[in-house]
Amino acid sequence: MPINIPKLLPAREILEQENIFIMDDERATSQDIRPLNILILNLMPEKEKAETQLLRLLGNSPLQVNVSFLKTNSYESTNTSKQHLEQFYTTFSKVKDLKFDGMIITGAPVELLEFDEVKYWPELTEIMDWANNNVTSTLHICWGAQAALYYYYGIGKFELQQKCSGIYPHQIFEPTDVLLRGFDDHFYAPHSRYTDVSIEAIKTNTQLKLLAASKDAGALLMASRDRRHVMITGHLEYESDSLAQEYARDLEKGLEIRIPENYFPNNDPSLPPINRWRSHGHLFFSNWLNYYVYQETPFFWG
Fold first, then answer.
1. Which of 17, 62, 241, 268 sits between 20 and 30 A of 249, alpha carbons compared?
2. What pLDDT shows up at residue 24?
3. Which helix (H) or strand (E) segment is 83 a member of?
């Protein structure tokens, strides 16, 4: 998928080196097709890193995509420069009169707080209410998935005894769902979180489908039956060393943290991890864009 992003976005140079197909405005407007308009609400502290991870996966389909980045107005990030946010991000007040084919709401390092204790929770719920009428399908990641399960479906989260961190095998429960088209019966995905949600609560909710889960890491992938909401508690967008960086960061903070499970060869942090989820990450994002966004979105929204 050719993705149309600002020329000066730092992720651009990284993606071009990886031979990701990036299109500039001039070439995009010369093509006689309507691109998909995707809005990314980036709640991650290291926003530039999250941008690169997501754009890499949005760039692997024949569809053309325009990407816009959204930041919260009620909370100002302290880990990303103000210049970067002002140059590449917009606020909800500037997009609320628009319609988008798809939206991504990322995770955030606030999972140990109650939802209503999060500073931007009122703003986030306003955005999620707006998305019901202005976005064809929204992909919620990690804490964003827990927020969606709680706000839309009344399914809360609970704290784990120890952090769930590692690469876990998952089983597919809805093999005919197009979101999983091309997936192996069992596949690996990274998890990194301190909280979880009840699989039983998901299974008994008539509005939801449990698509994939892990015996050790719990529910991974859920979708609403109308395809408007997709929730993934793990991180198929992670790079090979993402968990290694998180592990090193936690050690530096003096936290009592386990080595990420099934991640380092021979459980040795000095060895580079092997990526076992990359292909399913690309496939998942491609399927979401094609079947849950492109095939469902009204043409006149453009």
1. 17
2. 54
3. helix 82-88
The confidence score (pLDDT) of residue 1 equals: 45
Question: Is residue 7 over pLDDT 90?
Answer: no
Please choose, from the candidates 175, 167, 239, 162, the residue with its C-alpha nearest in 3D space to the C-alpha of residue 209: 175
Residue 21 has pLDDT above 60, yes or no: no
pLDDT computed for residue 22 by the predictor: 61
Q: How far is CA 91 from CA 9, 42, 86, 121, 123, in A?
A: 17, 11, 10, 15, 11
Catalytic residue among 235, 239, 280, 282: 235
Question: Can you list the positions of beta strands (E) in the chain?
Answer: 3-4, 22-23, 36-41, 65-70, 89-90, 100-105, 135-141, 157-172, 186-197, 208-214, 218-224, 229-232
Give the start-to-end residue ranges of the domains of the chain.
3-301
Out of 51, 142, 229, 280, the active site residue is 142
Least confident window among 12-26, 103-117, 194-208: 12-26
The phi, psi pair for 40, rounded to 5°, reads -115, 115
142 is catalytic: yes
Q: In terms of DSSP H, where are the helices of 229-271?
A: 242-252
- For residue 13, indicate whether it is catalytic: no
- Catalytic annotation on 186? no
The C-alpha atoms of residue 241 and residue 276 are separated, in whole angstroms, by: 12
Q: Which residue has the tokens 């070439």?
A: 27
Tens-digit pLDDT profile for residues 256-299: 899 999 999 999 999 999 999 999 999 999 999 999 999 888 75
Location of structure tokens 């080595």: 259
- Residue 45 neighbours by CB under 8 Å, 6+ apart: 77, 78, 79, 80, 108, 109
**Active-site annotation holder among 48, 51, 237, 239:** 237
CB-neighbour burial class of residue 4 (10 A; exposed 0-12, middle 13-18, buried 19+): middle
Write down the pLDDT at residue 30: 47
